[in-house]
Amino acid sequence: MDFKYSGENVNKISTDLLVVGIFKGDKFHGSVKSVNDALGNALRELADDENFDGELGKSVDVSRTFGKIGAKRVLLLGLGDKLRFSSGTVRKAANITARKLRAAASHVTFGPEFNGGKGYIAALAEGVMLGAYGFDKYKTKNGEEGGIENVVIVSESMKDRRFEDEIFEAKAISESTCLARDMVNEPPVYMTPSRLADIASAVADEGGMRCEIFDLEEIKRRGMEGIAAVSRGSAEPPRFIHLTYEPRRKPKASLAVVGKGITFDSGGLCIKPADSMRTMKMDMAGAAAVLGIMKAVACLKPSVKVHGLISTCENMTGPAAYKPDDVIRAYNGKTIEVINTDAEGRIVLSDALSYAVNLKVDEIIDLATLTGACMVALGTYTAGVMGNSQKLIDRIIKAAGGAGEKMWQLPMDEELRPEIKSDVADMKNVGSRWGGAITAAMFLENFVGNTDWAHIDIAGPAYNEKESNWSPKGGTGFGVRTLVSYIMDR
Ligand code: BES
Ligand code: MN
Ligand code: ZN
Question: Which of 31, 247, 295, 422 lies in disulfide reach of 337, CB 3.0 to 4.6 Å?
């Protein structure tokens, strides 16, 4: 996709689609008024017919302009409440436009009202690129190809440099988010642990990053018994992946992002019912987000050192499968009593988190589709954030706000901690049903030592069962935008 800006009059610009925006309850003025006048009041009449009031997400479509203006088609988009207008509004508006259009227009122009200042161009470009996303690799082609190729942003004043910088950043973030989406959307027969490792190695090569991949033998040799145990029920061998981004100059800080990479979660011997097993190809969304983050980081070059760590395997029921009552010794030496083989994510993460501690990083952030309980607590659009450092949690939640991803903190309620005490080992892998997202986080806390750590449970927002207004069906790439923004501002 190619982005340009132009100072030309909105009525003159030759384009497939002109998008103009209006706040809720606002009168027609500026570009909206001049387009409406040129079209003989068509926007006004259609808006009234459809009871359009400028609400965010609503729009009026003028599908033909009969040569009265340069644009072939006009979309009047609601921008919602004027007082709440932000780069986030523009990202959503652009997303809706691209989503509505799909293959319908290849040249799209946005009116000047979308450029509200610093960061707005990036948000607009990001919105268009993410909104235009689709996963059709496995559809036999029906000639419906095409889509948005050129985007023009009308702007009276703009500096080349600022425009280029914002587009560059938007492209890095969108491409990385789409990589994560693609990985999640691939069927599990394709997206195996070894395929995931191949992609990691390609991302590392392309970005000039170090990449270490441990196979089963190396995983066992190093004492990563958690990953080894969970993978035993599967014919697919596990992988442990370590990518390193190193800034040119002495790093300001170092951090590790850790992803859960269960490429299919059948539940293991504690097998899931059929309805819950469907969509469990998405159980590697944390790992996909980590690779997206590393890809973006290699491109945007922050001044912090970033380690990307991934534990990846399948959770299956094969003859050698790990069992309830088994005891596993994790990489840091602590022992785990297996109560339920379906609580496998925390087991594979135990090795990755303790490995991160050994890297002596300043901070660890993990991303995992860890618990159904987190979805019960927060719904399917919001991630749960927990951890041992309030400062880190606050900064992540703040970054999420700016990036347009929803995150909410859940409390580490000390009264729940006894839930995971075990009689035979250092801990059990599950407590009771209640507070399941929290006891899962408390389990993970056993493996982070004294390192500042935040855990992001993305079970809800990582995957959409149905398309939402500004988010696609299937993999969403959740977490990439927040953490890239967090790392860039670190
Ligand atoms: N991968 C699941 C969590 C999950 C559920 C993610 C639904 C996305 C959508 C995880 O491995 C799991 O099975 N968790 C169990 C834990 C339980 C056995 C304590 C769960 O949430 O039911
Ligand atoms: Mn599970
Ligand atoms: Zn799982």
Answer: 422
Decide: 372 in ligand 1 pocket, CB within 6 A: yes
Q: For residue 373, which ligand has an atom nearest its CA?
A: 1
User: Catalytic residue at 44?
Assistant: no
Q: Which residues are CB-neighbours of 208 under 8 A, at least 6 positions away?
A: 298
Structure tokens at 125: 């470009």
Q: What is the pLDDT of residues 195-237, one digit of tens each?
A: 999 999 999 999 999 999 999 999 999 999 999 999 999 999 9
What are the sequence ranges of the domains in the chain? 2-132, 175-488
What is the pLDDT, as a whole number, of residue 408? 98
| Ligand 1 pocket mutation pick from 342, 367, 374 by most atoms within 8 angstroms of CB | 342
> Does ligand 1 have an atom closer than 6 angstroms to the CB of 477?
no
Q: Is 272 a catalytic residue?
A: yes
CATH class of the domain comprising 2-132: alpha beta
Q: Is the CB of 430 under 6 A from ligand 1?
A: yes
pLDDT tens-digit map of 286-335 = 999 999 999 999 999 999 999 999 999 999 999 999 999 999 999 999 99
Provide the 10 A C-beta neighbour count for residue 198: 13
Assess whether pLDDT exceeds 70 at residue 143: no
Q: Which CATH architecture has domain 175-488?
A: 3-Layer(aba) Sandwich (3.40)
For residue 396, pLDDT over 80 is answered with yes
Arithmetic mean of pLDDT, 408-425: 98
Residue 74 structure tokens: 């006009």
Residue 109: the pLDDT is 97
Q: How remote is the CA of residue 489 from the centroid of ligand 1, in Å?
A: 32
Beta strands 59-62 and 71-78 are antiparallel
The pTM for the full model equals 0.97
Tokens for 339, please give them.
Answer: 């109560």
Which tokens go with 219?
């995983």
State the DSSP H helix or E strand holding residue 44, giving kind and residue range, or none if neither: helix 42-49
Between β-strands 239-245 and 305-315, what pairing exists: parallel, antiparallel or unpaired?
Answer: antiparallel
Three-state DSSP state, 20:
strand
Of 181, 346, 428, 481, which one is the catalytic site residue?
346
289 in ligand 1 pocket by Cβ < 6 Å? no
